[in-house]
Structure formats: C-alpha cells, structure tokens
Specification:
Layout lengths: L1 H12 L2 H10 L2 H18 L9 H23 L9 H24 L3 H14 L1 H11 L4 H20 L26 H20 L7 H19 L3 H21 L1 H17 L1 H18 L4 H12 L3 H6 L7 E3 L5 E3 L5 H32 L3 H16 L7 H19 L8
Antiparallel strand pairs: 1-2
Helix pairs in contact: 3-4, 3-8, 4-7, 5-6, 5-16, 6-18, 7-18, 8-9, 8-10, 8-18, 9-10, 9-11, 9-12, 9-17, 11-12, 11-17, 14-16, 16-17, 16-18, 17-18
Length: 429
C-alpha cells in the first residue's frame, strides 16, 4: 500500500510530459529495447560460437538478463500444469529444473571442468529462451513485429560478416571488425537461413499479390536482399540449408498455385527467368556441392549417433541422466577425437542429459512445432521459414548451441499472440 501511494504521488507531482516519457520507457517497452539492443551488439560484434568470449558477449548477456528481468525469471521457475499454459511451456519449465539440477549433479560426479560446463549451460538457457520471454510478448503482442524484424536483420548482418572471409577488401568490411581466426560459422547461424527464406517468401508473395507492373518492384528489392544470405550459405557450401531453400521455394510455389492459380503463373515465370539468368552460377554451385557430397557424404552423422549411444549405454545412470554438462565422447565425425559437442540437438541432449532429458526436449520441441503447424495455413511464408532451421539443427547442424536457435524458437509462440491481437480467435499458445 505504501509503495502504491508513493508511486501515485510521484506520478501526480511530475509534469505531464515527464509522465508520458516514463511510461514509454518503463516496463515491457524497456525490456523490448534491451532485447533489441542485445541483438544489435550480437549482430555487429558478437558471434554464434566464440572460442574466446569478450566484451560483446558479456554486454549481450547483460542486456538479455535485463530483457528477461525478474518477472521473466520468476515466470520460468513457476510450475503450473494448467492446460492454458501449453504442453511446450510446461515441459520447458521441467526441463529447466532438470538441467540446472540433475545435469549439473552429473557434471559434478563426472568431474567436468567449469569452463566446459558453462559452455553447455549457456546454450541450454538460449534453447529455453521462449520459457523466459514468452510472457513479455503475451502482455504486449504489438512488440512482435519489431522482434521479427530484428531477427531478420541479425541474420542479414551475420551473412554480410560471413562474406568478409571471401571479400575482405570490399565495401562490406566498413564498420565491421576484422575477421579473426576463430571458427565463427556466421553463415551456419539459424537466423541466416531464416532471413533468406523469409525474404524469398515475401518477394514471392508480393509478386503474386501485385496488381500492376509497378508494384512488382518492391518484390525485386526484397529478392535482391535475399541474395546476401543465399550467397553466404552457398560460399560456405552448406548442403542442408541450400536444400532447404529449394524445398521451401518448391512448397510455397505449390501452395500459391493451389490457392491463386491465375496470379501464381507470373511467379513461376519470374522464377524461370531468374533460374535462366543465374544458370551458370547455379550449375557451378551444384557441382561444388556434389563434389563435397562425394567426399564427405553425410559427415558420419549416423556413426556419431552410435558413438553417443555407446558413451551413455555403458552405465544405467548415464543412460537415464547422461554424462552431465561438459561431458565428452570420442566422435567419429572429427576423426575419433574427444569432443564435448555433437552435430545434432537430439544426440547432444542424449549425451548430456540422458533419456530423461531427451524425452523432455522432444516434448518441448514437439509442442512448439504443433504451434507452428497451426501457423502454416495462416502464414505459410513465416511458418516454413521457421520450421527449416529448427528441423535442420535438430538433426544435422551444431548451431543449435547458438543464441540464434533460441530466437527462432521464441518467434513460434509469440507470433501466436500477435495473431490473436489481430483478432484471430484460434491463435493461442
């Protein structure tokens, strides 16, 4: 009561202009600003998988903590088995408790180094970013478009930074730090694939909806922007992501032909024209990818999964609860060396958290993907652009350990709130 009276008094004694300024920067708006600032620092100076974290990572982490705030942390640890909360959120909270208790205990029993444990816990918290932040967007669904735009910009900037390795003296280097020898894998970031897919989908959507020739020009601008992340992925010869791009374009074209067959003809014609104009480049990329496929095949993903199983199945405790954070195994994917990472979210969680943690992880992901399936018929461009990096990182790439993966997952439930705010009664998390 005292706090309320003091707050009321302070508001009544301030000029009206100061009150409006205070309201603009307080609460959810302030947390959104911190989140966007964190993504800005991360995009321009950070990296998805730094070997030697520095001030950009520390500043990004601090801003994320402020963005989550006490309310987000309190909500994340408050268990509620209400059906309104949703399967994914309930399992995410249980997984958070499990990871910060049982998996830490297993790490202590295994005597794993503090540095290796920390390098596993931070990606684990990124993975559960929706658990910490979904409540903020639930109260302010109007913030979702700003967050979506920021994630697209993040992927675009990472694509630009990845191209510095190939064009270090170009104008792209202006304003960016020099490329170091660390394995940053900018082009591997899930946000790069998401940016490429979303921009491609938006350009196709604008072409289909265009009413005259002049209105097609914005679609060409968006398509030109999509070429930056596409070039970044092609330069790093990523077979899974480029295959995802082809599949994404094919599925969206079929959807467009099914929904609006007459207007979709122009989209097919534009696509054929682009393929014809870029045919030499496309053939060269296909040749490089084919050569890589003949050399490395599936990068021993199956053998890696079997090696993880061998590492945990020798002991019932390890099988149920994993080796704990910081646990390592001899990976055939890197020549049998002892490493503490795998190239799949599922095998990584099996190694670190055992069958119990793997079950919770699969339930958490399944709940989020079920939300995504509801978005498919309403926003196929966005839904498929979100699905591709999630599925690829679940099975093929190690970039699930980056902040980007958590950002992609966070977009899934918060967009449901945005649709509900637009008047869609079926949109819910």
């Amino acid at each position: 009561m005292l706090c309320r009276s003091m707050e009321s008094h302070s508001l009544t004694t301030r000029p009206a202009g100061s009150v409006s300024v205070l309201m603009r920067v307080d609460g959810p708006a302030f947390r959104l600003g911190c989140l966007l600032a964190a993504l800005g620092v991360y995009a321009l100076r950070g990296s998805p998988t730094p070997d030697s974290p520095g001030w950009p990572e520390m500043l990004t982490g601090f801003l994320l903590l402020v963005a989550v705030g006490f309310s987000g942390a309190k909500s994340a640890v408050r268990l509620s088995f209400s059906t309104r909360e949703g399967l994914w959120l309930s399992c995410g909270k249980i997984l958070l408790f499990y990871g910060l208790s049982v998996s830490l205990l297993m790490a202590g029993i295994g005597g794993h180094g503090a540095g290796q444990v920390l390098r596993d816990i931070l990606p684990f918290l990124f993975f559960l970013l929706p658990v910490f932040m979904v409540g903020h967007f639930q109260t302010r669904p109007g913030h979702v478009p700003y967050f979506l735009f920021a994630v697209i910009i993040l992927g675009f900037v990472f694509a630009l930074r990845s191209l510095l390795a190939f064009y270090p003296f170009s104008l792209l280097s202006a304003g960016f730090p020099a490329v170091s020898q660390e394995l940053f894998y900018f082009a591997n970031a899930p946000t790069v694939l998401f940016a490429a897919l979303f921009l491609l989908g938006m350009s196709g959507e604008k072409i289909v909806n265009a009413t005259r020739l002049k209105s097609i020009m914005p679609a060409m601008v968006v398509f030109a922007l999509a070429l930056v992340p596409l070039l970044a992925m092609a330069a790093s010869t990523q077979r899974a992501t480029l295959g995802g791009v082809v599949l994404y374009m094919g599925v969206l074209t079929l959807v467009a032909l099914w929904k609006r067959p007459t207007k979709s003809v122009r989209l097919v014609l534009v696509m054929l024209l682009v393929v014809w104009a870029c045919l030499p480049v496309l053939l060269e990329i296909m040749e490089i990818l084919g050569r890589k496929n003949s050399l490395v095949g599936s990068n021993m993903r199956t053998q890696e999964a079997l090696a993880v199983w061998d590492a945990v199945s020798d002991n019932p405790g390890h099988l149920l609860f994993g080796l704990g954070w910081g646990g390592s195994f001899h990976s055939p994917a890197v020549g049998g060396l002892s490493v503490n990472f795998t190239h799949s979210l599922l095998t990584s969680m099996l190694l670190k958290t055992g069958l119990v943690g793997l079950f919770l992880t699969c339930t958490y992901i399944f709940g989020l993907l079920s939300l995504l399936s509801k978005l498919l018929l309403k926003r196929p461009v966005l839904a498929l652009a979100l699905a591709a990096p999630v599925l690829i990182d679940m099975f093929l790439y190690a970039s699930f350990k980056s902040l980007d993966f958590g950002l992609i997952l966070l977009l899934i439930p918060v967009y449901q709130f945005y649709l509900k705010g637009l008047g869609d009664p079926k949109a819910h998390a």
